[in-house]
Design a protein that fits this description.
2 copies of one chain form a homodimer. Chain A is an alpha/beta fold. The first copy, chain A, folds into 2 domains: 187 residues, CoaB-like (Rossmann fold), CATH 3.40.50; 65 residues, no CATH class. Chain A is built from 7 helices and 12 strands. In chain A, the strands form 3 sheets. An 8-stranded mixed β-sheet of chain A has the order 5-4-1-6-9-10-11-12, with helices on both faces. Chain A has a two-stranded antiparallel ribbon with strand order 2-3. In chain A, helix 1 packs across helix 7, helix 2 packs parallel to helix 5 and helix 3 crosses helix 4. The first copy, chain A, is elongated and about 70 Å long. Strand 8 of chain A pairs antiparallel with strand 8 of chain B.
Chain lengths: 256, 256
């Protein structure tokens, strides 16, 4: 099979020296990649600079990206000249990217000017609408400085929605076996399965691996693999998760 | 000499999986640490998990921290039982830490409520004051969620000032030879020296290493070491910067 794996975590730049990072060691992606390779499959592996990588070999192509936008561009380039049989989307992708950063002082100056643009304040009934429009204009028009000014007590960071990568994967590669990932924090097993299923349905995945940050520690990594029939299998380590995913993806591919 | 080095870059948590990171490879700190050790000095080395570290040896103690607040606590603990002769503060410390994160919808709801708290909008003359007070209250009172909600188009992140570590270093260890660092982006040599000098005076440093991100690439790393008399020496690599700093710190210590 021709396999695509995304792993690691994206970073969204705030300025030239700071960014918002989604933490991910990439160790689970590495396990999955190495197991697909060991089974004789070809792997295109898209990851981020901080994450660990599978051991290099001839059937493996590694591509590094930083931001969600770069991930999107890189994936579209790949889809231009490759068709994948299986896609394992384990990268921790930022839902939001930075739009603008401004000091409290500048924000209040801009907001006050917008609220009183008509020579007076809006009616209480028009207030919310004016606030939405003002925030939108401030978010879109204020140019980001090269480095954030340090002489202010409070900064406001505007973040805007990133493109949804998982939806794009299904749209671009309709016949691939698609595995989505969902990481939650401190929820029950029932909730984990419920959210995993909803992600599977919403994004038209074949499988979703649901896991909880509080169940990942050292070699222990609990993961629940959910399929489109709602059936679940549970693994307790990264190796077991990799084995489950490779087995299920191969099965689904054979049965298509 | 008993030397303290800070290196790497701090991270400020947004939620359990995301943080704002100040990028720093720690490679310059490693060079400086290893050169002090090679000269027979004792080194306490405070760094961050992503940064490279000096090669372990008996005269070296390494301590890892994440956030600026943790750095402050760790330094104060060290100062309780150690007196340092030289302090090299090369860590990229975040000027701001996360205060709260909220969706545009929740922000506008809260702000509209505060603006109309008296049953009507404030006068245009009171508007700014009301906006400052409202932002302050929203920043301080809204509890952060475990993971940011993804179902909103825009997020607002409130950041507040971190404690100034360099000022605390001088206050706590008045007799140490103190070396500050200043990283700028895309400025002239004159501007670099001007800003470096102002940092030196403001924080009562003995030396400041001023460098420009655009002059750091591969083995090339231009650094200008400025002393309290305004004299400067320029290095072109990390090794040369380390040599300059070790030489100057030893000299200043001998001449005290």
């Amino acid at each position: 099979m021709n396999i695509l794996i995304t792993a690691g975590g994206t970073s969204e730049k705030i300025d030239t020296v700071r960014s918002i990072t989604n933490h991910s060691t990439g160790r689970l992606g590495k396990e999955i990649g190495e197991l697909f390779l060991a089974q004789g499959h070809r792997v295109t592996y898209i990851t981020t600079p901080q994450a660990v990588q599978p051991t290099k070999e001839s059937n493996l192509t590694i591509i590094e990206i930083d931001s969600t936008k770069e991930l999107e561009t890189t994936l579209l380039e790949q889809f231009d000249h490759q068709k994948f049989d299986g896609i394992i989307h384990s990268m921790a992708v930022s839902d939001f990217t930075t739009e603008t950063t401004l000091s409290e002082d500048l924000f209040i100056e801009k907001l006050a000017a917008k609220l009183t643009a008509d020579g007076h304040l809006p009616d209480a009934t028009d207030l919310r609408e004016t606030l939405y429009r003002s925030l939108d204009e401030i978010g879109k028009t204020i140019q980001q400085e090269k480095k954030i000014p340090s002489g202010t007590d409070r900064l406001l960071l505007f973040l805007k929605k990133n493109p949804k990568i998982i939806a794009m994967l299904r749209k671009q590669q309709p016949h691939a076996v698609l595995v989505g990932f969902k990481l939650l924090v401190g929820v029950s097993t029932e909730e984990l399965i419920r959210v995993g299923q909803s992600i599977l349905i919403k994004n038209n995945c074949d499988l979703v691996l649901a896991n909880d940050l509080e169940e990942i520690q050292g070699s222990h990594h609990k993961g629940i693999l959910i399929d489109a029939l709602g059936q679940t299998e549970t693994a307790q380590t990264k190796k077991e998760i990799a084995q489950l995913i490779v087995k299920k993806v191969e099965e689904k591919w054979r049965n298509q």
